[in-house]
Amino acid sequence: MDPLAAKRSRGCPAGPEERDAGAGAVRGRGRPEALLDLSAKRVAESWAFEQVEERFSRVPEPVQKRIVFWSFPRSEREICMYSSLGYQPPEGEHDARVPFTRGLHLLQSGAVDRVLQVGFHLSGNIREPGGPGEPERLYHVSISFDRCKITSVSCGCDNRDLFYCAHVVALSLYRIRHAHQVELRLPISETLSQMNRDQLQKFVQYLISAHHTEVLPTAQRLADEILLLGSEINLVHGAPDPTAGAGIEDANCWHLDEEQIQEQVKQLLSNGGYYGASQQLRSMFCKVREMLRMRDSNGARMLILMTEQFLQDPRLALWRQQGAGMTDKCRQLWDELGPEEEEEVMAAGSRHTVFGRALQAGSLHWSDDHLQRILASDSYSPNLTGNGGSDKPTFDPQGRPLWLGEPFPTTCARVDTLRAHGYPRQALRLASAIVNTLRLQQRHQLQIYKQQKKELLQKGSTCITNTEGWVGHPLDPIGCLCRALLEACRLEEETLAIYPDLGLEKRKVAYQHVPVPGSPGESYLAMALEVALLGLGQQRALPEGLYAQDKVVRSEEQLLALLEEVELDERLVQVLRKQAGQLLEGPAPTTPNHSILGGPFSGFGEVLFRESVPMHTCARYLFTALLPHDPDLAYRLALRAMRLPVLETAFPAGEPPSNPLDSIMSNRFPRWFILGHLETRQCELASAMLTAAKGDPKWLHAVLGSIQQNIHSPALLFKLAQDVCKTATPASAPPDTTLLGIALELGLQVMRMTLNTMTWRRREMVRWLVSCATEIGPQALMNIMQNWYSLFTPVEAATIVAVTGTTHATLLRLQLDAARREELWACARTLALQCAMKDPQNCALPALTLCEKNQAAFEAAYQIVLDAAAGGLGHAHLFTVARYMEHRGLPLRAYKLATLALAQLSIAFNQDSHPAVNDVLWACSLSHSLGRHELSAIVPLIIRSIHCAPMLSDILRRWTLSAPGLGPLGARRAAKPLGADRAPLCQLLDAAVAAYITTSHSRLTHISPRHYSDFIEFLGKARETFLLAPDGHLQFAQFLENLKQTYKGKKKLMLLVRERFG
Description:
The chain is mainly alpha-helical. α33 (762-776) packs across α34 and α35 packs parallel to α38 (840-850).
């Protein structure tokens, strides 16, 4: 026999009962239920049918039928749980992903027919419409059940998923909703017992004939074994009946495909890096919790199966071998597994687990008398019992129970365990005792702190002895407490509570105050808020590692998301105000403590540990919540929370960081992986305060001071300044000048912080600062011009600040009169001249441009350029300024600057593509246009600076094409062009000829055959230059003869020379 197939051997009953008690008859509304049905219900829930048969020698058929009838599950909740995912799927995917909703649709569309219940076996057909152009599909479904649980399912769709398919759901819901329409038969063995030999033979032959292709070999094998007297089948009393229900020894649990769970977890782990796989594994963990909450034994079975697959993950051995850590995705999944294991171990008291915390949980027990009394009653008080000789207090001064003696996270894990295993009332009682203990401990901490406050403030620093904070802890103690307390106050529609996956859109959660028994005036909702604030405000060290730090952030955000769902009323506001006040006065850590009395040290206290987790996110929630009710408290709390201790100790006041735009600061703070995120949250808190303080100068300047002291990231400061400026200048209202002043101050600080660490965003920052100052007024604009040394580089001040501040658009925006406009211009010109003196190389030309309309300033700028030329201003910059002067109609000044540039220039014989070639040709053209005198003066400079023969010959030809002084700027005119053989060009000709001779010898020293043709062309150009002299032909011939004699070994080259030049 196969126990997994839910078959049970049954003997032949003494005789069937002929009477029918009318099973399946519909009872009238309002009539009391029959005693038979009441009894059958209880028996069907808790007794295996075999136990009924053994207990009573003869069970009447009507009683059997009622027991069989009531043995099918009666609640749709379990059907939903076993056929739906454990999380809310994305909108629009419910029908595609949740079998329960599909099965419900099939039922409502009339797709279920031919439903038959034979004993503890239900069967039926499901007709599912096909897709476009596809025929209708028919699925045969079989379900076995026992004691109101489905024990096995079979469907023609061959579903290979974790949970029931839509067809099983449709048939199950049909049986629950239309139970009296289902044809009911007793187990098949009961029917067979009523047949005689001929009927039995006919029955068997008809059965074989109907299914001969499937059962004929099995039928023949069974017949052979029955005819064999000593066979095993003849030694067993009775025969198996798959419709007779479970045996006494059979486990009573819902059907769970263990093999499929193992296979799917294994597959999902192998794809654990993908978002979809991680989500599915999380949904399975949620399903485990859901089963445990309903006290379903499959929750533990499923958790064991998943744990085994986690431990068999081949990557574990690989990571251990390589000494590498898990990926973050895998860490998150293992994090999900750890608390589940601990809860199960705590519930069962088992030690069989490999997880450290679960091992610790295995040593815990639930037999403590005080704990049992807390869990058992809402009215447990000192009047009912004494301390029993315990050295720990068991009640607070108000007579409310306390729970001490173990670490706070473990205590909270007890609450989560009770809640997860379906004991919500007991979970609430223990949670209340924990809150009472927290309050008592908080009072003690405040007393200790007040005694030691003076000493701590003088010391100015502290240390944290309990490094494992409550928010971000692997067991999530604060989250466990809050969820348990909030769950008791949550208002939910009954349908949504039963079918959590059916909500088509996220609903706003509503909560109500639920009184705490034995504590007049208290509510679980207020308790939840109080506990959350205690945990969030706890001073705690940032843990090691990226994943642990990221978990702290995520846990904090999840906890605050829970609080933001709660609508604050007067009672909750009072809790907020009280807790906020205590957080501000809160103690710093003083003594080591590893129990619950280790307590929450305030992260808002006056003295902080250097590596404490910042309070920015928590403070932003408190600030927003308190602002309408107690603005003074809200601002004091938020301003205190602006601190970022790890940066305060790293950078002394007034000393900027070495690389302030590096938010991560990995080179200086390798442990603070999430520093960039924390700085962003700090900036968001500051932004919220600035926005709220609009129109209130007192708080605006207080917030500004805090920002300037505590925010160390220029990029975030700049973003904050931009946001403030945007808030201060609404489109439909006049600007807020006070808020604009705050934005300008923030911008000025950014400029100072980034002055020595140039970034690609500096130009954007400078332009924004000028526009912000413009919004405020001309005085602000002139102030930044006058104090430019501490804010801008000379280039930024001259090219952006001075220029942008005097554009036509800026002047129109400021709406200045003539005197004020001239004052602004004078300030800009002074700025430009100062920049030109500081950095003439980059600022001289902008200064000249800006000073064009003021002769004195222009002359001063020109003189700065001349002085800089003597001090080493490069030829490229001098040529640029010279060209600018010619465009301005000042050719003599252009000529002067060009000669200064030529004096610094040197072009070698082989630099015919030198970058200054065009500038030199332009300077030569300029001197030629001015006249013979200027040309004569520049020739010696050309000869001294340029040694490139082709360039010299090019200049010479250009000067011989026309007479000097004939250009548009020439003041003197010559009668005819200058001759190359006469002064002043004869010197240039001699220099060009000498350059060709020198260059030829230089090239021939290392010439290769592939360059022969280039050299011949070079000689051709040289001959053209030689021929400009009266005896040039003779000089060139002598030059060639010299080459032939000197380089006669280069026979091929000399042959080419003779062929070309003779």
